[in-house]
Amino acid sequence: MKFSVLGHGCVQEVDNIHSLIERTLRKSEVFSLNTIARLIENCNRKNSYNVIKMEKENFKDFQSCSKIFNFQQIPFSKIFQIRFTRSYFEINYRFSPDSDFINVNIREYRRSFRNSSNTDRNEIPDPKINKAKNIISQEKKKDIISMMPWAPEVDKNYLKIFVIKIYKIYLMYNFVD
What we know:
The protein is built from six helices and three strands. It is mainly alpha-helical. The chain has three domains: 1-53, no CATH class; 60-128, no CATH class; 133-177, no CATH class. Strands 1-2-3 form a three-stranded antiparallel sheet, with no helix packed on it. The protein starts with 11 loop residues before the first helix and ends in a 5-residue tail after the last helix.
């Protein structure tokens, strides 16, 4: 896996798509995630993009799985290239095309697993569905309520469905639909 210099991607097609999306979003007012999805779908007039909306089951807790590895040994912000080996735990990296690869074993954390006598298992745990609840702050609720009168109808409907509690507060303040 090679990392390119910021702003100069190796894959021009991807850079072109990102540039097109950024140009479209820069010219538009965004009131909800639905607006962003609509803008991305329609920003390329020749070939419209397919936006896949993620469901709750799509959000996995990879952080808890990564805690059994020692990733602190790898300076990700400075590396030029990473080379993975057949072993999950051996990683090679280098800082420039001229430098030699540095070999690192990220399996330094020795944790004991319940119901297991072997702590050096050669398997990576499956990530579970992330069950963390995102709570909207009072400030954010006030911001959304204050922008509702100017939002397009489609976005108002989205906000009503997606943020029911906010809409109840919105009605309490007697804003006219």
